[in-house]
């Protein structure tokens, strides 16, 4: 949506529409679902990938939509909300696994194998998520100002190339360094980065549709010209 004022005012703080809440819910659902199904490895075109590849890129697509429509400040809050919700899910799964099983229940080993997390994998996953999502939102917000709101596809794809690249690099390196050779780490990073980035590019028409719909319904198009981009500052 084109506005006479290229830098329209931000929505009132603390005001959250049904569309913003729905978008946030999709973001968090995609994130938590991806972490649960990532345990399964699939074969795709000769590549071995975690099953999470079918849903995890959605969190980046929705992250792009949040930043493009509502601005970096709101996206930053959603990223931290997603982090906290994921932490709660992981804690609940861990507690459920440590509780004594009923005498007739014989699936504890299956529960542990599918839902169990090692501390190293958890740390790698959380670190990769924060680095990737915040980088993605930052680059998109800055590119929106630089392009005057034009060429949305350059922002969504450009931010994803960097964000997904950092996400894959941080996770694979922290999770598997020392257990697989460097060549294997490079291959795994490159494969995941390529698949996720292509996924995002193919979804560009969908992203355009949702962004345009939300801008029309919400009557906003936020530019972060006075935003402080510190990821730990949720107020400015």
From TrEMBL:
GO CC annotations, alphabetized: plasma membrane
GO function terms (MF aspect): transmembrane transporter activity
Domain of life of the source: Bacteria
InterPro entries: YhhQ
Keyword annotations from UniProtKB, A to Z: Cell membrane, Membrane, Transmembrane, Transmembrane helix, Transport
Name of a matching Pfam family: Vut_1
Topology versus the membrane: Multi-pass membrane protein
Segments passing through the bilayer: 19-38, 44-66, 78-101, 121-141
Annotated function: Involved in the import of queuosine (Q) precursors, required for Q precursor salvage.
Name of the protein in its database record: Probable queuosine precursor transporter
Species of origin: Desulfococcus multivorans DSM 2059
């Amino acid at each position: 949506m084109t506005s006479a004022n290229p830098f329209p005012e931000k929505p009132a703080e603390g005001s959250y529409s049904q569309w913003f809440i729905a978008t946030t819910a999709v973001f968090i659902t995609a994130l938590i679902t991806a972490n649960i199904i990532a345990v399964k490895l699939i074969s795709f075109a000769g590549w071995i990938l975690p099953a999470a590849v079918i849903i995890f890129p959605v969190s980046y697509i929705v992250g792009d939509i949040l930043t493009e429509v509502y601005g970096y400040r709101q996206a930053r809050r959603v990223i931290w909300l997603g982090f906290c919700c994921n932490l709660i899910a992981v804690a609940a799964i861990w507690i459920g696994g440590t509780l004594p099983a009923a005498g007739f229940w014989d699936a504890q080993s299956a529960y542990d194998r599918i839902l169990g997390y090692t501390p190293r994998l958890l740390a790698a996953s959380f670190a990769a998520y924060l680095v990737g999502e915040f980088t993605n939102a930052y680059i998109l917000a800055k590119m929106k100002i630089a392009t005057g709101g034009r060429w949305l596809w350059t922002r969504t794809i450009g931010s994803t190339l960097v964000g997904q690249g950092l996400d894959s690099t941080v996770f694979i390196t922290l999770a598997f360094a020392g257990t697989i050779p460097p060549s294997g780490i490079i291959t795994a990073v490159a494969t995941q980065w390529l698949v996720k980035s292509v996924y995002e590019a193919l979804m560009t028409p969908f992203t355009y549709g949702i962004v345009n719909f939300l801008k029309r319904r919400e009557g906003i198009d936020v530019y972060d010209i006075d935003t402080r981009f510190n990821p730990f500052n949720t107020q400015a």
